[in-house]
Description:
- This protein is mainly alpha-helical.
- It has one domain (2-43, 54-225).
- Helices cover 73% and strands 3% of the residues.
Amino acid sequence: xxxxxxxxxxxxxxxxxxxxxxxxxxxxxxxxxxxxxxxxxxxxxxxxxxxxxxxxxxxxxxxxxxxxxxxxxxxxxxxxxxxxxxxxxxxxxxxxxxxxxxxxxxxxxxxxxxxxxxxxxxxxxxxxxxxxxxxxxxxxxxxxxxxxxxxxxxxxxxxxxxxxxxxxxxxxxxxxxxxxxxxxxxxxxxxxxxxxxxxxxxxxxxxxxxxxxxxxxxxxxxxxxxxxxxxx
Length: 232
């Protein structure tokens, strides 16, 4: 087996990564909308309840947990697709999906005592020991992320996959996501003092843009791992 890492694959993978990011944030946003009955402010990398919303601590916790729940589900869909009995195209898609959820970012956030999961659980136990809560949340994230990451390492061909693709696609997409979405796009909204209603349209347009790119290049995600033999 060998890795078919093409430019079009990278484009498709990044579209998937940014789309997963937006699904994560839309899960927060929609949960907040259902709970409070109104739309809160949105950015490319931010969400909130409406200023006049009156919600309980438990309701805020549910909105906080909606985002990471999406990532955990997609992680384990990827894990399932990488089953050894599946085709290489399904394993390729599963591997891509695992890395597109940015598992390293989730692990780093949990290890530093942050992240949506930790924030949500702290709301549930406001008087609990923060260190204990952080450790419990870190354990949950480790249990959710490590098995799919191990499976991806096993599925990828050696040496291209395990020595190059694995560390590169584990680390670099998170940096790119934080820079492009968190700093450039979200920073532009803030700098331009964009009204809330227009901010929603920009975020919707960004989400649709990534979805269109993903749909046009989707088949490349299923061609990452090839059964062609490497030349001797």
